[in-house]
C-alpha cells in the first residue's frame, strides 16, 4: 500500500467535508493510504500571492517541509493547494536565493525544505499511480448509463507543470470510463468557474458559472464531476443565484469524482458524504446505489 | 547614478520566484485576450494592459480593474507565444497596487486579500465566516439576500464551520511569518 502525506486544505474541513470523506473511502479501496499531515496550515489559495510572493511560498513550504520530514510524497485534493505546493516545490530547487529566505523562516518552526519530494493532485494518484485499469478492477457497481461531465477546471492542468497536455487533457474521461460511466464531450471542461471572483466580482463569476452549466446541460450531462472544492461550490451552490440572475432553470448535480468512484466501488452514499448537496443528487444517483453497499 | 526603473521593470522585479517574466517581449498578438474567460468584465483587455505596462503608463494601468478581474485561470499564460506568464503579471500588478494603495476604492479584491491574510496570521487556517464582511456589505440588497440565503442552506447541510480551527504550533508559525514580513519581534 503506497502511503502519501495528505494535505486536505481548509475547504475540506467543513465546506467540502464530503470530498474528504469520499477521498478517504476511495483511496482505501485501491490500496492507497492518505496520512493527514499533522498541524498543516492554509496554503494561501490565490490571495497570499496578492500580497507577498516570498511569504506566500514560505507558508506553502511549511506544509511541504513537514511531508519531506516524514519521507512522504505530498497529495492535495484541491486544485489551488496543489498548484501552490507544486510551484513552491519547484522554485525551492531552482532558486537558491529564494530557498535561503524560505529556510531561514522555516527554521523558526524547526523545519527545512530541500524539495526532495513529489507533489500530486489527488486525481493524479487515480490517473497515474492506480490507473484506469486499477480502478476498473475494483468496480463492483458500474455506473452504467450515467453521463458525467468531466470538469477539470483550471489549476490542475494550468499553469503547465511538466510538459503535459493542457489544451485537451483526457485523464478525467479515462477515470470516468473506468467507473463504467459515460464521459460526455464537454467543450468547456477546462474553462474557469470564476474561482474567488464570486466574492470579489460577482457579476463576472455568475456569468462564468452560467456558461459552464449551460454547456454541461446542452452536452447531455446527468451530473458534473469536479476535483476541486471551489469549483464544486461555485457550480452547485450558486446555481440558484445564476437562475435568479439569468432566468434559467439549471438543476444539475455536481459531485466530486471521488464520490462517483465510491458509488462505483459499492460504497454507501452516506460514507461518501452524499446528501450534503444543495442540488439534490437523488434523482440521478438513486439507481446507482449498491444494494448491499459496503 | 542608476536610471529610474521603468514600470515594466518594476513589475518584472515583483515576479521574484519565477525570475521575472519577459513582459517586454510582448508582440501584441491578443492570444491572451482571446483566451480570457473574464475579458468582457475588464476595463482594458490583458493585451492592452501589457501594452500599457510596456508604454510606462503606470497610473492608467493601476486605475483599471483588469488585474483584479483576473481569476488566475492561467489560460493566457499557457498560450502566450512570447512566454510571458500573464496571470503572474496580474499578480505582480496586484501586489504593486496593494503596497502602494493605488487601487480604485470600489474594489472588493484588495480588502478581501488583506482580511484573508490577517485570518491566516491569527489562526493558521482560513475561516469563511470571518471573510464574509469584506465583500457582503458591498453587495446590493438582492445579492446580499441571495448570499445570506445560500449561506443558511449551506449551514443547514453542515457545510459552514461554527468555530475557526487553530493550528497547534501557532507561536512558531507566527515567528516564521515575522522572519519574512517584519511585523514585530519574534516571541
What's the layout of helices and strands?
The complex is a heterodimer of chains A (294) and B (187).
Chain A: E1 2-6, H1 17-29, E2 32-36, H2 53-70, E3 73-76, H3 79-94, H4 96-106, E4 119-121, H5 122-138, E5 147-150, H6 171-178, E6 182-183, H7 197-200, H8 202-218, E7 223-226, H9 229-237, H10 239-246, E8 254-256, H11 257-264, H12 282-285
Helix pairs in contact in A: 1-11, 2-3, 2-4, 3-4, 5-6, 8-10
Chain B: H1 7-13, H2 31-35, H3 46-54, H4 58-63, H5 66-69, H6 75-79, H7 86-99, H8 109-123, H9 128-136, H10 141-156, H11 170-178
Could you list some keywords that capture this structure?
A: 294 residues, alpha/beta, Glutathione S-transferase Yfyf (Class Pi), Chain A, domain 2, Rossmann fold, 4-stranded parallel β-sheet, 12 helices, 8 strands, B: 187 residues, 11 helices, 0% strand
The biggest beta sheet of chain A, please? 4 strands, parallel
For the record, what CATH class of the largest domain in chain A applies? Alpha Beta
Mean pLDDT of chain A: 95
Instruction: Please name the two chains that share the biggest interface, counting residues whose Cβ lies under 8 Å from a Cβ on the partner chain.
Output: A-B, 70 and 69 residues
Q: Count structural domains of chain A.
A: 2
* Total beta strand runs of chain A: 8
CATH topology value of the largest domain in chain B: Fumarate Reductase Iron-sulfur Protein, Chain B, domain 2
CATH architecture of the largest domain in chain A: 3-Layer(aba) Sandwich
Q: What string gives the helices and strands of chain B in order?
A: HHHHHHHHHHH
* Strand order across the largest sheet of chain A: 2-1-3-4
Outline the low-pLDDT stretches of chain B.
none
Shape of chain B: globular
Beta strand count of chain B: 0
The rounded distance between the terminal residues' Cα atoms of chain A is 20 Å
Largest sheet of chain B: none
